[in-house]
Amino acid sequence: DAQNQRSRGLPGFLPGASDPDHSLYVSPSNPENQVWQSGHPPPGSLPPGLDYLSQLDLIVVHQQVELLGMILGTETVNKYEIKNSLGQRIYFAVEESVCFNRTFCSTLRSCTLRITDNSGQEVITVNRPLRCDSCWCPCYLQELEIQAPPGTVVGYVAQKWDPFLPKFTIQNANKEDILKIVGPCATCGCFGDVDFEVKTINENLTIGKISKYWSGFVNNVFTNADNFGIHVPVDLDVRVKAAMIGACFLFDFMFFEHSLAGL
Fold it and tell me: What's in the GO CC field (predicted)?
């Protein structure tokens, strides 16, 4: 079909594939002006394995169904496929956590998500410490650390206190705010998509969104498999795109980990 034909036309674009095309780059964003300019930075200026993200304005995150967890009713580690708009897998993410944390801390558990490319090379590490997520505990809210490559911190995702709306900021390696993410008052979805809008710091301009896609009553009630779409400007800094992938994982843990919450 047409999609397969287009897929065959991109053999060297997928991370981990041989002879990837490095011709398209973006310059880092300016946190003060909140404007992103496309350009051609020197070779090697992008974190290894993230150059492909510079070509994407849509990143699809698909959680894999764990049949053993469904049958036994136990909390298993989360696994995600990260795809482009053609449905081609570009990265694979696996949660690392201990059974005790998954059982007793549930969705608040501390964990590490390791993201690898198609060659099995780890390109992004997402660290999540054990923290609260209640508006009654504003001093110890959720936070993620993003490393790309592993060992090099490139950003953070931090929950901000708000009595009505879920709000988060994407920060650079110095913990300076770059973007805001504002979710809806109710994240149940009511049989539709749930959108978290990505805004500039002053919240005057929406530049993208992270959407939890509605996948039907049966899938949402009887499985924990969630599907997300990250819509961003194509020339957004790849480090910020990596942080938004981390934010997508955080939203899944906080709002959609249990199937009934995804309704």
Answer: plasma membrane
